[in-house]
Design a protein that fits this description.
The chain is an alpha/beta fold and about 280 residues long. It has six helices and 15 strands.
């Protein structure tokens, strides 16, 4: 009985293999290495090399194309892009008005063409945008009038030719810039600058407006100061001053190499800046 069952099982298995039909007709395949099959892959088609063309440089930031025009007669600062006025802000100017010529301590806002030479953002007067005063014309006048020496003139001109801020410690003065009203005034957008002529030669904006202008300009932005208020006290060049009782608060305009300075209040809280350095009297 057991032998018969074994023969039946063997026959069934042989019959089953025959039912496949196709397995007995498959060719005998050879097994090759991976390198053999890799060699059968056709090489990729490599397109010809195309010269790399550098993309056009991105457009210059808006600040590169901006310029500031400050009218000392209209007491107005205008931000220009080309010939379009982007914004207008009221300003205050020097206690003794504006003129194309000034010396240290005369409280005159200098008329002329300058650039933003440095920006200090952490002064007590908010951002201080220092101007590249004195310019070449200022230096030529100072040399001609005997106010500065030839060495001082050469130092100013050499700095201008090299694109640097000129020396700020000559008898022509320095630290002329654009700044806010300071901590005695609020930063509200609706606030306005204390009007008139009360600075030591700088151009003052409200705290809010100073922040707006500082956000638009950069080092190198052109600044043109125009106008000439008649009747400024030219005698102040010789050193005469209006007696005042100063109210001193701390300030640092951030010019390279300068120490912290003082601010003198001449008119009911309108503070103007005066450096503590013995040679810098604006």
């Amino acid at each position: 009985m057991g032998k018969a069952r074994g023969r039946w099982f063997l026959g069934a298995m042989l019959g089953a293999t025959g039912l496949g039909g196709c397995t007995t007709h498959l060719p005998i395949t050879s097994v090759h290495s991976v390198a053999y099959y890799a060699a059968q892959i056709p090489p990729p088609v490599i397109p010809p090399v195309v010269p790399v063309v550098s993309p056009a440089p991105p457009p210059a930031p808006v600040a590169h194309r901006l310029r500031l025009v400050i009218s000392t007669t209209a007491h107005r600062l205008e931000v220009y892009k080309g010939n379009t006025v982007l914004a207008t802000y009221p300003v205050a100017i020097g206690f003794h008005g504006a003129a194309p010529k000034r010396t240290r301590g005369d409280d005159i806002t200098p008329v002329g063409r300058y650039h933003i030479g440095w920006i200090s953002r952490n002064t007590r007067y908010g951002p201080f945008m220092g101007l590249t005063y004195p310019n070449r014309e200022n230096a030529e006048w100072g040399l001609r009038e005997g106010i500065i020496t030839k060495a001082q003139y050469r130092a100013i001109v050499d700095a201008i030719d090299a694109g640097r801020t000129p020396p700020q410690n000559t008898p022509l003065g320095g630290a002329i810039g654009i700044h806010g009203m300071g901590p005695l005034f609020n930063d509200d957008p609706r606030s306005t600058v204390f009007p008139g002529r009360w600075t030591a030669g700088c151009v003052a904006l409200s705290n809010w407006d100073a922040q707006q202008v500082a956000a638009m300009v950069r080092v190198g932005t052109p600044v043109e100061i125009v106008g000439n208020i008649p009747g400024y006290r030219r005698a102040s060049v010789a050193g005469s001053k209006i007696p005042v009782t100063p109210k001193v608060v701390s300030m640092d305009v951030g010019a390279p190499g300068w120490s912290a300075g003082r601010c003198i209040d001449r008119r009911g809280g309108a503070a103007q800046c005066r450096q503590s350095s013995p040679w810098l009297n604006w």
